[in-house]
UniProtKB/TrEMBL annotation:
Pfam families: Hydrolase (PF00702). This is Haloacid dehalogenase-like hydrolase domain-containing protein 3. One of its GO terms (cellular component) is nucleus. One of its GO terms (molecular function) is phosphatase activity. It comes from Cryptococcus neoformans Tu259-1.
Length: 284
């Protein structure tokens, strides 16, 4: 599904890619914004394996679904529910809570994966909450090795930090469980709250407003998706950094073998962001 070149990290060494160290920006960094998934943290196990594990634990027969059938079903189910209930069903009639919205995702995924309606109808009330609880905790996700150290160092450098995510408020529980939330200087900006999603410039502008900063040089956005994180932030007038860890990506990561990374500022670790901040904020 994803390019072998990306998997091997070869694209990161393309001579046409503008790496962070070559940046000519000189103004001090005031704020660093982060994407969440595959930037600060990543699933401990592939999403489909975790769905399968909780579904079997919740009572579905092992013969009805497999990890691969769940993997094949997840994206179509997600697209179906998202099309029917945009913005997590916030303005649907009747409106849905994030928990109700995700329960529909889980239900449609497992049905498409092979579970019978009769069996699933009797189990979803146990499987849904179990899966949501898992992904709201460090049982479902893990930080990258340098995540906490990066946030702590930026805090010591008196640089503001926050998160920009296409997510609902449940993500706050995940960030808290991973010890990320207490280290952020400003509250996260979520698509649920501002009703705009990456790559729209609006969500980035709202994030800067929330952090009491003006869009422009000295504001950095770090994320792993070329369109949503890099180009989206750049369109808002924010300095963008595309993070691509060699060999580090989850099943849900957005990658394209035809990506054009010429002129893109690419970093391979959050440590590179700290180094840039130290360099640009150093007292003459």
């Amino acid at each position: 599904m994803f390019s072998v070149l990306v998997r091997a990290g070869i694209l990161i060494t393309n001579p046409n890619i503008r790496n962070m160290a070559s940046s000519t920006n000189s103004k001090p960094v005031r704020l660093v914004l982060f994407d969440v998934f595959d930037t600060l943290c990543t699933p401990k196990l592939p999403i489909h394996e975790q769905y399968h594990e909780e579904a079997i634990r919740g009572g579905l027969s092992p013969e009805s679904i497999t990890p691969q059938s769940v993997r094949n079903a997840f994206r179509p189910a997600f697209k179906k529910v998202d099309a029917q209930y945009p913005l997590y069903g916030k303005h649907s009639t009747p409106s849905l809570t994030p928990e109700e919205w995700w329960t529909r995702i889980i239900y449609e995924t497992l049905r498409e994966a092979g579970a019978s309606k009769g069996e699933l109808d009797g189990k979803i009330d146990a499987i849904g909450p179990a899966l949501m609880s898992r992904f709201e905790s460090d049982f479902g996700y893990r930080n990258f090795p340098e995540t906490i150290a990066c946030l702590k160092e930026l805090k010591e450098l008196e640089v503001k930090t926050s998160v920009v995510s296409n997510a609902d408020p449940r993500i706050l529980k995940t960030l808290d469980s991973l010890q990320i939330l207490p280290l952020l200087a400003c509250s996260p900006t979520l698509s649920w709250d501002v009703e705009a999603a990456k790559p729209s410039a609006t969500i980035y502008e709202k994030a800067c407003e929330r952090c009491e900063e003006k869009v422009g040089e000295g504001i950095i956005m770090v994320g792993d998706e070329l369109k949503a994180d890099f180009h989206g932030a750049a369109s808002a007038g924010i300095e963008a950094r595309l993070i691509r860890r060699p060999g580090e990506w989850s099943d849900g990561a957005v990658r394209d073998a035809k990506e054009e990374l010429g002129g893109v500022n690419v970093v391979s670790s959050l440590e590179d962001i700290v180094k840039e901040v130290k360099q640009r904020n150093a007292t003459p």
